[in-house]
Amino acid sequence: MSNSAASAVLTTVDLSEAVRAVRTLLGMADIDQGAVDFEAVIRSPDILAQVRQVLPDLEWWALAGEQHGSSKANDNPADHLPIRVFD
Fold this sequence. Notes:
three-stranded antiparallel β-sheet, globular, alpha+beta
């Protein structure tokens, strides 16, 4: 069980808008005592390619579960869409 006070700040399908918002927030944030997480579900090969350009070492697993594909197993995420990504 987690004691996190995290909540979604922005929900969008526009990757450039999301990256811009994250950079703006991190520029203002005092994260010395905290952490910043990124989580998303990717369903499209085109979006996956865009995200991998920005975050090449992305941790991911198949939406059906890790046993159906994951970055830990060195699987190709494009073969396991939809995937959940975390960074």
